[in-house]
Write a structure and sequence with these properties.
Blueprint (H helix, E strand, L loop, with lengths): L10 E5 L4 H12 L4 E6 L4 H8 L4 E6 L5 H15 L4 E4 L14 H29 L5 E6 L12 H23 L5 E8 L21 H14 L3 E4 L1 H12 L2 H11 L15
Parallel strand pairs: 1-2, 1-4, 2-3, 4-5, 5-6, 6-7
Helix pairs in contact: 1-6, 3-4, 4-5
């Protein structure tokens, strides 16, 4: 007997949904037969919601500042009123500042990055997870978009890497807690891609044997893993290889390999990001 489809007739919430990978996740949700899709973004996603609603799916746009816990609570209440709850949660939104740590502004760069990349996913998941646990009549999914930067230290992205390391640790811990307490209808997937060509990492260069992923390639891999309930998805394959080598080699030999052979440590040297 086939397992129930976790997307068909589901209520899906996506953060950072106005463009890029968030928009692609929204389009996949509609194509997969979701009952309703909530688009959360700090910018206006009304045009995308109107476009996707032509399919007959109930797609709604919410302007939300996910760096603000109170704004998350407000918007979550609106979603409960509008849709009745959430079955699939995609914590996609993220920001990056590519610079040496000492050039980061404490509030604008450090605090903002941790709030958007890490705390927002925690706050939002905490809003809906108890309801997901209570309703065991259908499968539920949580997809947390982390990064290869959360598995491997890299110069010029210390705060971003820190935010993604924290996200991975939290995401994996929640998965284990749910399994330990018997809530197996909820699957948590952590996605760790290398650089994706969304503009967020404009100027960055892929290390040796590590192509820069297109948004379509990245979302396809993450989506497939989420639907299957795969605990962790890493793309491309060199992300897992680098983790293995870093775990086996002493620090200084790994540094030499990463710097001189794989060119990991220089991959952010020409970074410009969206503003470049």
């Amino acid at each position: 007997m086939n397992a129930p489809d976790p997307i068909r007739d589901a209520r899906v919430l996506i953060t950072g949904a106005a463009r890029g990978m968030g928009e692609l996740y929204a389009r996949r949700a509609v194509a997969a037969g979701a009952r309703a899709v909530a688009l959360w973004d700090i910018t206006d996603a009304a045009a995308l919601a109107a476009d996707l609603s032509r399919s007959g799916v109930d797609v709604r746009a919410y302007r939300v500042d996910i760096s603000d816990r109170e704004d998350i609570a407000r918007a979550a209440t609106e979603v409960r009123v509008d849709l009745g709850g959430v079955d699939v949660l995609i914590n996609n939104a993220g920001i990056v500042r590519g610079a040496p740590f000492w050039e980061h502004d404490p509030e604008r760069d450090i605090e903002a990055t941790m709030r958007v990349n890490t705390l927002a996913a925690m706050w939002l998941t905490r809003e809906f997870l108890p309801e997901m646990i209570a309703d065991a009549t259908r499968p539920a999914r949580i997809l947390n978009i982390a990064s290869a930067a959360g598995t491997l230290a890299n110069p010029r992205m210390s705060v971003y890497a820190g935010s993604k390391w924290a996200l991975i640790g939290w995401s994996e811990s929640v998965r284990l807690e749910l399994e330990a307490h018997g809530h197996r209808h909820i699957a948590v997937t952590t996605f760790c891609p290398s650089y994706v060509s969304t503009g967020m990492f404009a100027g960055a260069r892929g290390p040796l044997l590590t192509p820069i992923l297109t948004p379509r390639q990245a979302t396809q891999a993450a989506w497939r893993g989420m639907v299957r309930g795969t605990p962790m998805v890493m793309r491309p394959w060199t992300v897992k290889l680098a983790m293995a080598l870093r775990g086996v080699l002493p620090t200084r030999p790994w540094d030499a390999l990463a710097r001189r052979v794989f060119k990991v440590y220089s991959s952010m040297d020409a970074f410009t990001g969206h503003g470049g």
